[in-house]
Amino acid sequence: MTSTLPNEADRNEERRRRLLLGPLPAGFLRADGTVDNVDADYQAALALQQQLSGATVPATGPPLTARLSITIAQAKLSKNYGLTRMDPYVRLRVGHCIYETQTDPSGGRTPRWNKVIHCLLPPGVNSIYLEIYDECSFTMDELIAWTHINIPQAVLNGETHENWYPLNGKQGDGKEGMINLVLSYSVGPAAVATFPPVLVVPSTGMGYAAMPMYPAPHPAPYPAPLPQQQQPPQQLSPEQLQQIEEMFPSIEKDVIKSVLEANRGDKDATINSLLQMSE
Length: 279
What we know:
The protein is an alpha+beta fold. It has 6 helices and 10 strands; from the N terminus they run ααβββββββαβββααα.
């Protein structure tokens, strides 16, 4: 009876035929579609980074970023805490980022800051948190007042909105005084929205959860959109500024100057913003 099993020589010949001798090909051990998978992963990671930074990707052109401009003009407080006039400053939270105004020395119950803050508005954020502190030299700064403000829909529609907002504090909800804010909203290329990172600090006196410690988000650095040249602020003469103030006698001069600064000295844009505020 003849065996049908291959002999040892046949088995060795079969093994040699299966061996690959020489340099490996470029596609060795690479699954089909790997390049496409890498591109898809890159696009997904880029979209996630832009979403976390508040940027949206249009069909064409560079990513767009939502920006909120907040002018913290002044406040009228109900009480001066302490034996001397208070030195108030404002701490503002937008999303995970904290911004502060300068201190108004001896501002007391009527501090003025006229501070314009430009910040990113992350997706889903529709409110801001605000605290007023009395700066102290040898002790912890004292929390005077706080409030939670929902961003008006008119602002998100592109209008400039100016209003007085009630403050909460030791006197009770809405009884600690009022603060004057000017809000405006815009959407533009992410390259313009370059803001320095601001560390978030814990807060324990506002009646809501302590602020988490995150750095301010940056626009996606790669691929970098083409840089855009910003126009330098325009300089208005005192006569032109006086003309604007005479056009809006019911709006305080400090508020007019803050709106002018937010519009980078553009006279026409400032007048349009003041017209929206006076409606």
